[in-house]
Amino acid sequence: MINYHHMYEKLIKITPEKNVMVNEPLKNYTYTRLGGKADFLVTPETYEQVQAMVELANKEKIAFTLLGNGSNLIVKDGGIRGIVMNLQKLTEIKTNETTMVAQSGAKIIDASREALSKSLSGLEFACGIPGSVGGALFMNAGAYGGEVKDVLTSTKVVNRAGELLTLTAEELDLDYRTSNIPDRGYIVLEATFSLTVAKYEDIKAMMDDLTYKRESKQPLEYPSCGSVFKRPPGYFAGKLIQDSDLQGKQIGGAQVSLKHAGFIVNKDRASAKEYIDLIHFVQDTVKDKFGVNLEREVKIIGEDLII
């Protein structure tokens, strides 16, 4: 059982009180607008504060979860116990010639726009990805033929022991929508990208084209976690779902998007349980009809709500 007062006092010795919230609703921090409460939600401002919080969690033997910016994530209705860390205040992006260093809380979209402003090519694919830089590394985010592993050279992380490490891109085992970051419990603090000089007009034209494709095809008018499923070998997840006559299928307030079958949207104040039940229904239906296993791209964390 957590001693809330004890933990609160410990946390505000590490970071200012404004950065420590108790029983904070996590639906305010996820793109799906789903999720119960965190015992403690902390938003550190420095790498040292991140390290100190990891060390505190270890010492107190309290659960510790990294939230990211909640774009490719479903938090269950029962919320998350222990300390939940959000790195939304680590947002600095710097460029030096063809090298960009972006902190993990910065949006990957903003990194792509900063690259454009400096006439640097390589991050155009990220102009429509809603996640953070840290999240982009976590899952080797990609779109329209580009992915993080194409431009990442190194990263700074904090490990489970609270140690600060500098790792090469190769040490992250980046593959299609995966890395070893979750398995090893790394907290990404910053990423270094190697970009190339190109014409501003060419970079902007590509980003404008990709933005148009995204906005015209994706259901951005509703909260969602983005693309729910990974692309199965030899197929497209959205096409399989569409051919299973599942577009418009609804469980509670969660719906398979009518605009893009690969998306599930929070159409009408859905619960996380309804959203997850619909994911399972889609997986079962596609498996029965086509014999294809749809693997989730979205991550599900937290506890079920006990009624």
Descriptive report:
This protein is α+β, with helices and mostly antiparallel strands and 307 residues long. It folds into three domains: 82 residues, Uridine Diphospho-n-acetylenolpyruvylglucosamine Reductase, domain 2, CATH 3.30.43; 110 residues, 2-Layer Sandwich (Uridine Diphospho-n-acetylenolpyruvylglucosamine Reductase, domain 3), CATH 3.30.465.10; 83 residues, UDP-N-acetylenolpyruvoylglucosamine reductase, C-terminal domain (Uridine Diphospho-n-acetylenolpyruvylglucosamine Reductase, domain 1), CATH 3.90.78. The chain is built from eight helices and 19 strands. The strands form six sheets. It has a five-stranded antiparallel sheet with strand order 6-7-13-11-12. A four-stranded mixed sheet has the order 1-2-5-3, with helices on one face. The two termini are 20 Å apart.
Fraction in helix:
25-40%
Q: Briefly, what CATH class of the largest domain?
A: Alpha Beta
> Which architecture of the largest domain per CATH?
2-Layer Sandwich
Oligomer: single chain
How many domains make up the 3D coordinates?
3
Q: What is the straight-line distance between the termini?
A: 20 Å
Number of helices: 8
Query: Given the helix and strand composition, which structural class is it?
Result: alpha+beta
Strand order of the largest sheet: 6-7-13-11-12
Which fold name is given in CATH as the topology of the largest domain?
Answer: Uridine Diphospho-n-acetylenolpyruvylglucosamine Reductase, domain 3
Uncertain runs are none
Average pLDDT works out at 95
Strand content: 25-35%
Secondary-structure element order, N to C: HEEHEEEEEHEHEEEEHEEHEHEEEHE
The major beta sheet can be summarized as: 5 strands, antiparallel
Number of beta strands: 19
Q: What global shape is seen?
A: globular
Q: Give the C-alpha Rg.
A: 20 Å
